[in-house]
Amino acid sequence: MKKLSGPIMERIDLHIYMEPLNYGEFLESTGMGSKEMKDIIANARKIQKDRFRDFDITLNSQMEGNLIETFCNIDSAGKEMLRKAFEKHILTPRTYQRTLKVSRTIADMEGSENINSNHVMEGIQYRSRLNGYN
Q1: Of 40, 67, 88, 97, which has the fewest Cβ atoms less than 10 A away?
Q2: 6: which residues sit within 8 A by CB, 6+ positions away?
């Protein structure tokens, strides 16, 4: 990770660090099954395809400028979280938009029409883990 420069890291949407899992935790794991996760992802992709049916894109990651403003409706608590993350230099102008798109996808996976503060918080966490925050 130290070999990647900041500008390269800004272009990667999700930064996820996984703690090693010990054997006891592995045996007790009750995580989501592959079929359930596949269904959630398929539903989110259908939502995105329907959302962008009048545009030349199919996924949230492909949104630019006006489309981000149109389709990333955030509640006031979420907006405040984004402002604070930006002011604390957790987000840059580039990563701000990427975080909005990731938050939109998280909301889609939950079947939520709007982005709420929980979606924003999760989106920010995916950016900040490898940047020394959180």
Answers
A1: 88
A2: none
